[in-house]
């Protein structure tokens, strides 16, 4: 399941105010001509890829001192790889393959780290599960031993009662 961000989480992730995040997402929707997903309550939700668009917007805006709209167009072009967005603005021609490659390398590294973390978590869960199974197995073995012991005790008591009954009758009849 993919992580979903709301406006509050997006603003925290980007270190911007919530009104700024609302402004950014509204502009991205206008420029991209594609609405962000909404949850069942109608709130806007963002995927990790959506968040990466906003991260690029802020990066381009700060590094290149671009207007917000130009930074949005460039970020969309880099993330989506769609060159239709760059046709509107002449100064977006400097979206280089190197920048795309750099971004993709960063994403691959991030995904590799995420995969490694998930594998470590899975290994820990497996280890915990194996310990639990071992404990359960030991508990079951202990219970079986106790049940066997109790059964043996019942059999001994039954044998003793039979012997006592025979002894009483043999005493009574002299056999």
UniProtKB/TrEMBL annotation:
Record's keyword terms, sorted: Coiled coil
Protein's UniProt keywords contain Secreted: no
Methyltransferase listed as a keyword: no
Source superkingdom: Bacteria
Coiled-coil residue spans: 101-166
A GO biological process held by the record: regulation of DNA-templated transcription
Protein name as catalogued: MerR-like DNA binding protein
InterPro entries xref list: MerR-type_HTH_dom (IPR000551)
MF annotations from Gene Ontology: DNA binding
Domain HTH merR-type, chain residue ranges per copy: 5-71
